[in-house]
Each structure stands twice: as C-alpha cells, then as structure tokens.
C-alpha cells in the first residue's frame, strides 16, 4: 500500500486550512464605538465645568475607512448655573470631520464641533449670550506630537460679541509600554472682545489601558486664568491646579 499519497493529501489539506486561518479579514467599511466613564472633575481647557465635582460622561463614534467620522459626546456640567442661568446641566457635543495622511507619519484632522448645552438659559443673564458654541478645527500630527487650532463661528461659551475666538494647543502622546501612556499638553485661549478672559492652560496626563475596553487616567491640570473672574460660587478659582482622575469603558 502506498502511504505517500494520503500523507501528501493530509499535509496539503492542513496547509490550506492554516492559510485560510491566517488570512486577514477584510477591513470593514466603518466602525461604531461607544464609551462611558466617570471623572472626578470635568476640566475643559483647564477650567472646571462641574465646580470640582465628579460627573458621568459618555459618547458614540462612527468612523468610515475613508477617513470621514461623526460623533456625539455628553457630560454633566455645573458652570452655566454657576454663571446665573436657571437651566443648563447637560453638555451634548456633536462633531464631524475628516482624517487623512499628508505623507508617512504626518496626518491631518479637520472638522466642525457643536457644543450644545441642553435647555440652557444663559442668554437671559445680563451681559451674556447663549452658551451653545460652534467651532471649526484643524490639527496636524507628526509622530507623537499634535498641534491643533480651533476658531468659533459665533459667540464662544456665552461671551457676548466673541465670534472668531481662538484656541491653540500643543500636545504629545508617549507610549511607555505595558499599556501606559503619558500626555503633556499646553493651550492658549483667546476670547474675542474680552481680553481679560484670555488665558493659558496646561496638563500632564498618565493613562493606563487595562485591556477589555477598560482604561484609567490621572492628570495634573491648571491654568493662569484670572482668578478674580474665573470663579465658582463662593469665590474659589475654577482654573486652579488640581489632580483629576477618571475611569472609562469603551465597547
């Protein structure tokens, strides 16, 4: 009996199966991702949005393989009521844009972001405007470094006559291995027609990816904003230096 032919057939069969198993699945046309988390103090551009209190946050992101993306993100807030409004406890951001590559290691990101403050009555406060804000943005990333420029299309976060306000920030993300990352950041906010409200902010964030969608971070944050005007009820400086911790689950 010739045993070579069955042996050769078996070898070819298992080689074929292994080849199929190793074949990469085709890239999906799009992905849909969700996230939810808790943070000890929602800081935006260095300024506390929650009067130094914890809040729940979450979002959803649609990403197409072409580079086009859409997303929504929500968080509890306190600053609108602290400014004297009767309503405005939830921030809902809607955004969309396009990411692409200029050349190897240099990528860009351009888009439009709407900050919505559901049912807010800030416009009823003397000297203030509606808190809802629209910004266009553009960013360049080279290796671990990113520079981003944002410009408001109308009034910025309730500041009257503040159309064309600008924010410029520089950041980097360094992989420390083992799921650890460190992210330094510095930014400059310029409020049109309200120079006293201009300021710079900074942060240094240490992050840990635990796998299975769970991640955590702790950040040292602060700003040089005017402590006489960036205040919460009681007079505490809303841009003061602090440590902020958060946990997030992505799925």
- Percent of residues in helices comes to under 10%
Strand order of the largest sheet: 1-4-5-6-7-8-9-10-12-13-14-15
Q: How would you classify the quaternary structure?
A: single chain
Order of helices and strands: HEEEEEHEEEEEEEEEE
Q: Which overall shape is indicated by the principal axes computed on the Cα atoms?
A: globular
Quick one: biggest sheet? 12 strands, antiparallel, barrel
DSSP strand content: over 45%
- Low-pLDDT runs: none
Average pLDDT works out at: 92
Counting DSSP E segments of at least 2 residues, the number of strands comes to 15
Report the end-to-end length measured between terminal Cα atoms.
57 Å
Question: How would you summarize the topology of this molecule?
Answer:
Blueprint: H1 4-22, E1 30-39, E2 43-44, E3 47-48, E4 55-64, E5 68-76, H2 79-82, E6 90-103, E7 106-117, E8 133-142, E9 145-152, E10 166-172, E11 174-177, E12 180-190, E13 199-211, E14 214-223, E15 242-250
Antiparallel strand pairs: 1-4, 1-15, 2-3, 4-5, 5-6, 6-7, 7-8, 8-9, 9-10, 10-12, 11-12, 12-13, 13-14, 14-15
Please describe what this structure looks like.
The model has no long low-confidence stretch (mean pLDDT 92). The chain has 251 residues and is mainly β. The strands form two sheets. Strands 1-4-5-6-7-8-9-10-12-13-14-15 form a twelve-stranded antiparallel barrel. It is built from two helices and 15 strands. The protein is globular.
């Amino acid at each position: 009996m010739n045993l070579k032919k069955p042996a050769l057939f078996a070898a070819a069969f298992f080689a074929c199966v292994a080849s199929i198993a190793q074949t990469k699945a085709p890239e999906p046309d799009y992905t849909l991702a969700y996230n939810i988390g808790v943070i000890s103090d929602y800081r935006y551009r260095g300024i506390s949005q929650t009067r130094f209190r914890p809040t729940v946050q979450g979002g959803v992101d649609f990403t197409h393989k072409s580079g086009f993306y859409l997303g929504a993100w929500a968080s509890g807030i306190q600053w609108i009521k602290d400014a004297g409004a009767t309503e405005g406890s939830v921030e809902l951001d809607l955004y969309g844009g396009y990411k692409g590559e200029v050349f190897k290691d240099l990528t860009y990101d351009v888009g439009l972001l709407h900050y919505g403050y559901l049912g807010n009555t800030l416009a009823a406060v003397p000297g203030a405007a509606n808190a809802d804000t629209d910004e266009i943005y553009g960013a360049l990333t080279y290796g671990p470094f990113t520079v981003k420029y944002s410009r408001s299309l109308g009034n910025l976060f309730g500041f009257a006559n503040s159309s064309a306000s600008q924010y410029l920030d520089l950041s980097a993300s360094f992989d420390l291995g083992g799921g650890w990352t460190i992210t330094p950041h510095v930014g400059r906010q310029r409020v049109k027609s309200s120079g006293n409200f201009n300021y710079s902010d900074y942060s240094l964030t240490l992050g840990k990816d635990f796998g299975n969608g769970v991640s955590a971070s702790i950040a040292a944050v602060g700003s040089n904003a005017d402590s006489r005007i960036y205040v919460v009820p009681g007079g505490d400086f809303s841009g003061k230096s602090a440590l902020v911790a958060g946990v997030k689950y992505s799925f």
